[in-house]
């Protein structure tokens, strides 16, 4: 990694941390609150690409593991990796990587609409599908909620996460126009 890469990774880790300042919104039917930090994960993947986006999340994991209160609600420490939200948290890493990899495929798209739509699909696949896969699996089997309750409870998050994916796609498109950071994927 170059010095520029390290700065960008640190910047997007800080963005994910900053989005954790917004208070979590608890839901009565599932032990996972609504947070804004998945927006930061989507942004890291879409704007930085798969490797640097995943590195930003990995740095976030280090901050959480050493006990810094960087997760939404001021949480931190190793307990975050075994609690009810652990699956969603762990899903951030492959989510950012997948979103970044898919976004890299749209880096050279000339049409603004097609590129923005491609970024939305990338954000939705990485930031929703992949993250939910890990989160629902953990709720169902790690927490013991059962698959039907875990899926039903997690469905309440989908509309908000779709809005986050739209915002991330629009932001990524704006960055690509003004100051492209996304690596081009070699075919």
Automatic annotation (TrEMBL):
The keyword Transport applies. It is a multi-pass membrane protein. One of its GO terms (molecular function) is biotin transmembrane transporter activity. Keywords: Cell membrane, Membrane, Transmembrane, Transmembrane helix, Transport. InterPro entries: BioY. GO terms for cellular component: plasma membrane. It is found in: Cell membrane. The chain crosses the membrane at residues 30-48, 55-72, 78-99, 119-142, 162-182. It holds the Pfam family BioY. Belongs to the BioY family. This is Biotin transporter. It comes from Martelella lutilitoris.
